Amino acid sequence: MLNQYQIDSELAKFKLWYKHNYPLCIFCGHRVKGGQLAHLIRRSFSRELQAVKLNTGLAHPDCHELFDDHPDQAVYLPRIVEVLYIIWTLDEPYFNMIADNFEELADVMQLFPEVRQQDKLDHHGELLTLQYLHPLRYNIRLIKTRNK
């Protein structure tokens, strides 16, 4: 098991790698300048997953806060389906613990076992989209946005 210094060193490498190779927000998919290194599975929940690149990604502070603290609003983040899928692949018990927070996406999440990944994912950018699992979700979101 890695000590905290080793974990922090790995995380610094991940952040630098993302900045140079995939500078997009893990939650919204838009370009990140600076930003934070976010963990999908909370650091306090799993020490082992802290230093797993797939569990990390750059994030805008607002997107990160929405995901961590406001799941009722996080369901509208453009990459939330991919984020939840990655969590499901990394740690199913943790996924089951948080899934009720994303009840609006229950019909999509039940399809995760049907997703076929050919290769093991190294980082979230390799999972381009899972929007096909729930195409109506985005039409509904557009309607809600227009009505505001």
Over the alpha carbons, how many angstroms does the gyration radius reach?
Answer: 15 Å
- Tell me the β content: 5-15%
Number of strands: 2
Helix and strand run? HEEHHHHHH
Contiguous runs where pLDDT drops below 50 for at least 5 residues: 136-148
Q: Strands of the largest sheet, in order across it?
A: 1-2
Number of helices, counting only DSSP H or I runs of 4 residues or more: 7
Distance between the termini: 50 Å
| Helix content range | 40-55%
Mean pLDDT: 84
Task: Give the helices and strands, then pairings.
Blueprint (H helix, E strand, L loop, with lengths): L3 H18 L14 E4 L16 E4 L1 H9 L1 H4 L5 H11 L1 H7 L7 H4 L25 H13 L1
Antiparallel strand pairs: 1-2
Description:
The protein is mostly helical and 148 residues long. It has one domain. The chain is built from 7 helices and 2 strands. The chain has helices at 4-21, 61-69, 71-74, 80-90, 92-98, 106-109, 135-147; strands at 36-39, 56-59. It has a two-stranded antiparallel sheet. Helix 4 (80-90) packs across helix 5. The longest helix has 18 residues, at 4-21. Mean pLDDT is 84; it is low at 136-148.
